Amino acid sequence: HLQKDKLLCLEAVLNNGCALQYVDYDVKDEELVKAAVSNAWRALQYSPPQFQNVKSILMAAVSQSWDALRLTSKTHRDPDVALAALANFGDTVMVLEGMERGVHEYIHQKLFAQKQFMMRVVGQCGMQIRFAGASIRSDVGLVLAAVRQSYKALEYVLPTEEGVVIDASAAVRGQRSLRSHHILNRTNLAGLNGIHLGDCP
């Protein structure tokens, strides 16, 4: 029974991670699964359920593609796993039936409500400020960090008399012109003054 030979199976998944689907269930331990997933994130679907949410295995998968989260059975609370998945998602905007779909659906909403986490998120991709929870959407420091990372984050920033808010539905309504965005002409938003977009395409 070649499917039960651990060394042979390990060699197989190191060559092609998806070979894990042919390995006997009893041989699929954490070491073998991690080796398979490190080679090909799609191998996660052939992993026993108890390994699909092991952090080291998940990190190996989402570092290749955020889609790996689709293969798991829960929303994720681990900030490192979430950040790795968000980094792979980048500035992608996926709109289906009037609503944005994507990586944020597989990450626990409590993470998006934490400023410390969101500062790390927008440090990777400013446009992901649209995922920020309502409780921190008016945080000028968060907005500034996002805009500094990418001027395109302005697409989701709405100025108010009290500060700023994030309009996560902007992608659904369509792109607005950055050059006509009111935030460029406002002077009462502390910390946001001095952002120059004259050279932006």
Q: What structural keywords apply?
A:
201 residues, mainly alpha, two-stranded antiparallel ribbon, two-stranded antiparallel sheet, 8 helices, 5% strand, elongated, disordered C terminus
Beta-strand fraction estimate? under 5%
Q: What kind of sheet is the major sheet? A: 2 strands, antiparallel
How do the strands of the widest beta sheet line up side by side? Answer: 1-2
Helix fraction bin:
25-40%
Termini distance?
Answer: 61 Å
Count the strands?
Answer: 4
Helix vs. strand class: mainly alpha
Shape: elongated
Give, in order, the helices and strands: HHHHEEHHHEEH
Description:
- The protein is mostly helical.
- It is 33% helix and 5% strand.
- It is built from 8 helices and 4 strands, in the order ααααββαααββα.
- The protein has helices at residues 6-15, 30-39, 55-62, 79-89, 109-112, 115-124, 140-149, 170-173, and strands spanning 95-96, 99-100, 157-159, 164-166.
- The strands form 2 sheets. The protein has a two-stranded antiparallel ribbon. Strands 3-4 form a two-stranded antiparallel ribbon.
- Helix 1 (6-15) runs parallel beside helix 2.
- The radius of gyration is 21 Å and the shape is elongated.
- It starts with 5 loop residues before the first helix and ends in a 28-residue tail after the last helix.
